[in-house]
Request: fold
Amino acid sequence: MIAALEPHLAILQVVVPLISAPLCSMLRRGDLAWMMAMVVSWLAFAMSIALLAQVMATGDISYHVGNWAPPWGIEYRIDAVNAFVLLIVSGIGAVVLPYAKKSVEREIKPSRRAHFYTAYLLCLAGLLGVTATGDAFNVFVFLEISSLSTYTLVALGADADRRALPAAYNYLVMGTVGATFFVIGLGLMYMVTGTLNMADLAARLPELGANRTVDAAFAFIVVGLGLKLAMFPMHVWLPNAYTYAPSVVTAFLAATATKVAVYVLLRFVFTVFGTGFEFAALTLTWVLIPLALAAMFVATIAAIYQVNVKRLLAFSSVAQLGYMVLGIGMLSTTGLTATILHLFNHALMKGALFLAIGAVAYRVGSTNIEAMRGLGKRMPWTMAAFSAGGLSLIGVPTTVGFISKWYLVMAAIENGWWPIAVLIVASSLLAIFYVWKVIEAAYFREADDETAIQEAPMSMLVPLWLLVLANFYFGIDAELTTSVATTAAKAFLGGGG
Amino acid sequence: MIQDILAHYNYWIIMVLMMIGIYIVASRGNLIKKIVGLNIFQTSVFMLYITMGKVEGGTAPILTGKPEVFSNPLPHVLILTAIVVGVATTALGLALVVRIREAYDTIEEDEVRDQDNATVAEEMSRAAR
Reply:
């Protein structure tokens, strides 16, 4: 039975969450829907592990949907990079679900809980689909499946705070503009090549030589994806959406959605357009690097001034996305390795940090810095996890944050860009300020009132600490992650992939 | 010159529509009008795809057994999908506007922002006390 399904893992990975989403909404009861979502997301995680093992053992997988051979049919193509991203997305998706039950019970009305899990599964299916597919138009469709369900998930935060509604609305408007830009880019590419299969596009685009339509397509795709991944200065939707979304949603999105958009950007820039494409190389160096540097500083400084911890972490995410974009702009194996590593590492740290804040929201009912006062004593495990995640965010040795920053600095030095290496370190040091703000309130201030606040329940602490320990495990033993990231980076730069 | 412009008239129409759409999204404060702008913007892209598939003298792509010139059907299929996505986006956007109206009693962007700023100011003063 299982052996018969094995050749179909690439499509099952996407289809199982997609089909279970409507079933989930039919269950109507929140707890049943939660169980279903739980089973499905762990199943997806197991499948992504099997896929990664399969790719490592036998090389790239090319799955032809409906047995139509590419480039006519839709192809699902799994190589080291997407197998790795699939693992990140489904892994985070599986880890946050045990946590979700309590958090959702507190933050979302009973009548909406089943729909919450429906939207969650749709979002998961969309993100996995974007990652697994080898067809450019399919990317758009799955991107919109995940985005539409994300808008819904963000809006569900309205049960706790009505500001979630305008946040979701603005996200919808900007996300749709971004997706439409992306489709315009695809249309222009289709116009000159007549194909939408990524591998086929990669083969045909260089034949055209310098072509203004292809340049325009590249510009549209980079801007469209820039909106989706919150590349500075197109990040304005992100802080509000992350602040007012339910806690679980913020943790899930911060760890997955923007990462998948970064992956799509990598895929298009390096596999589809290829490094031989001069217009791209110029844009990456002279447009993306300044924007990435601006993100690292402007967003970090903005984070220092926030009073809401969720918002603070959201601005920090914009800055961290700056590091990833910077790695892309370096156009070197080390730079790309840093980006892919940070993709994984940032998912671990922001997942842990947002889960910790979600636990605070569960017990205290607020995510403002004032509400953190004295929590170091009252919620020791939660705040210890937050501090550990904060250290990882700053990039202290033995944490994952250090590994990715190390590679990024190395890449800058390799290119001979000393000032940029200095700027990377400087912006990491600035991160100390905002992490310290929270730690100071939690450990060095006394609580105003004497109301008893208990430690968060076990079902929240276990997923939280799982991510925190992963932060340290992959920070000390980075062998696995760096080897995957280096292979992936080489595949991207070696053309094709 | 004029010949060139006229020969590509479909692109000019699409570009004008695209700009109108994105201008409405950026400049209007009314949340419903923004959604309408978004729709116009998306529609212009649908037209970009559809006109791209047209083959001069081509008919509808239906197999009749006779050798015929027909238009490229693939863009039509793609846009059918994109239209579905567009409808879903519009529906979700309008649903959000309904909820915003229930929660804020307005659908003007600046009034929503004013109310939010008032909430923030209130939170700050409570925290200061």
Q: What stands out?
A: The first helix of chain A runs from residue 2 to 5.
